[in-house]
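Morning - magnesium ion inputs below, output right after.
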Amino acid sequence: MPPATAERAIVDVVLSQKGGVGKSTITVNLAAVIGENIRPNAEGEDAPVIAAGIDPQGSMEKWADAVAEDILPFDYLSTRGDNTLIPQLKSDPLVKRIVVDCPGFMDVDPEAERSRDPLGHGAAADALRAVLDVADRAIVPINPEWLSYDPTEYTIERVLRPRGIPYLVAINRWDPRDGEDDLVKVENWIDEHGYPRPPKPIRKYKIHTNAAEKGLVVTQYASSGTALRAREDFYKLAIAVDGLEARR
Ligand SMILES: Nc1ncnc2c1ncn2[C@@H]1O[C@H](COP(=O)(O)OP(=O)(O)OP(=O)(O)O)[C@@H](O)[C@H]1O
Ligand SMILES: [Mg+2]
């Protein structure tokens, strides 16, 4: 055990019960903009910023393989079922920030009594529970479409609030070309529920979609107006996350 006074890394988890809302995209790009603004450690040492995947199926491994890791402003790791890794890294004095990409938890029991833990059983649920135990804050991505409303509410009410984990609901994949209607709708829904959210959404840009395949992150996009705006969105998210008080 580290001494009680030891600085521990802040663990931000990106999670939603819903698949495909942008958890992995947000994880790596948030880690990238944080990593760009932290003094690197000496070569060969652990990086100060770590993006971690806890999906036992290793959904991010393809991305990690495509990435030239030495040019990333963070380290990427996949826990591959080792649920002690993230708690260990949290106590590593060289590590300042950990951003965790959580799999959509599909094995929930929606009929479970409210007092019961709905995460279910199995390797994915165990990995999720282990990381929630050390999580300081959470980011719940939502898309501007009603299908992602219920899973967002469920994630917050059943998973985050019972654990006292502070969270933000981050609107992702809003397409400015679609106009403001869908954006206003989802913002109102979030506000009516009293959920905190960053002031600005993460916009939908094709550059993000192609980037994942190429193993690129937002800090490395070739300079263009779109790349600037894409980067801006993640800087704004990082600032909003920093405004959340960590559960420490
Ligand atoms: N802001 C964005 N603009 C454009 N495309 C995006 C954006 N965010 C995510 N995407 C794309 O949407 C798809 C789903 O995103 P992502 O894989 O990050 O979601 P996920 O929540 O991690 O999904 P899963 O639950 O399957 O792990 C991907 O193809 C990704 O490139
Ligand atoms: Mg994912």
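Note: The chain has one domain: 10-242.

O.
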